[in-house]
Write a structure and sequence with these properties.
The protein has 256 residues and is of the alpha/beta class. The strands form three sheets. The protein has a six-stranded mixed beta sheet, with helices on one face. It has a six-stranded mixed beta sheet with strand order 7-8-9-10-13-14. β2 and β3 form a beta hairpin. The chain binds zinc ion and fe (iii) ion. Zinc ion binds next to loops.
Length: 256
């Protein structure tokens, strides 16, 4: 099977759009639908026709173009059953543990409550691809609008067990501000410090920081590193649970 192709592009103020395309069948999925015109431009650039939208959660900056794209292309919209009433045009409702076929590939649905209660991530195990939207960012994680820190910690833990080489696409270019915060929590992590320098250089050229990998996030993202002894020492939380350490890191980021 020819490998799937990806097209990443910026939209809205700081969202990422991403298209997933199978050259053999022509099937093309948009991961979320933040804004119609940049998606149309990306399709035109590659000469692709949209067939699917994979929706991760109900926020407007992820579903705004659902109906317009459905009207234009007749796409199939696959999204979270727990948020189905808030997903415009949803056709196929999926929950954690479900899987479906996209162009002969298995797509697994991972339920990751935290940012929203019904947020899902899409995982293609054979391709080692993860679409994490607003659950896991480069050096960050989504704000907890609808769930407790313990729920988000549990959700992030489900992503952390995926293979290190899994490529991760995420919903927003927040990486520079995440990097500045990460240094305050984990100031002696050499892997983090060198990554921050790379991120500053990328952003200075206007380049994207997506995608990332699970292995890189596990080594540098403080929100996946609540068990790390140096972070715990730094926060004075040596005896706390991992979820409690995560909660403290998230609370500090909210005030940062
Ligand atoms: Zn969101
Ligand atoms: Fe978002």
């Amino acid at each position: 099977m020819a490998p799937l192709e990806l097209e990443l592009f910026p939209c809205r103020s700081d969202n990422f759009g991403v298209l997933l395309h199978d050259p053999a069948t022509g099937a093309t999925a948009s991961i979320d639908a933040p804004e119609e015109q940049p998606i149309l431009n990306a399709l035109a650039r590659r000469g692709w026709t949209l067939s699917h939208i994979f929706t991760t959660h109900h926020h407007n900056d992820h579903v705004e173009a659902n109906l317009a794209l459905k009207e234009r292309f007749g796409v199939t919209i696959i999204g979270p059953v727990r948020e189905a009433p808030r997903i415009p045009g949803i056709d196929q409702k999926v929950d954690g543990g479900d899987s479906f076929d996209f162009a002969g590939r298995r797509v697994e649905v991972i339920l990751t409550p935290g940012h929203t209660l019904g947020h899902i991530c899409f995982h293609l195990p054979q391709e080692k691809l993860l679409f994490a939207a607003d659950t896991l960012f480069a050096l960050g994680c989504g704000r907890l609008f609808e769930s407790t820190p313990a729920q988000m910690w549990d959700s992030l833990s489900k992503l952390a067990v995926l293979p290190d080489e899994t490529t991760v696409y995420f919903g927003h270019e927040y990486t520079l501000s995440n990097a500045r915060f990460a240094k305050t929590v984990d100031p002696e992590n050499a892997a983090l410090l060198s990554r921050v320098a790379e991120i500053e250089a990328l952003r200075a050229e206007g380049a994207f920081t997506a995608p990332t990998t699970i292995g890189l996030e596990k080594a540098t993202n403080p929100f996946l590193r609540a068990a790390d002894p140096a972070i715990r020492r730094h926060l004075g939380l040596e005896t706390a649970s991992d979820a409690e350490v995560f909660a403290e890191i998230r609370a500090r980021k909210d005030r940062f």
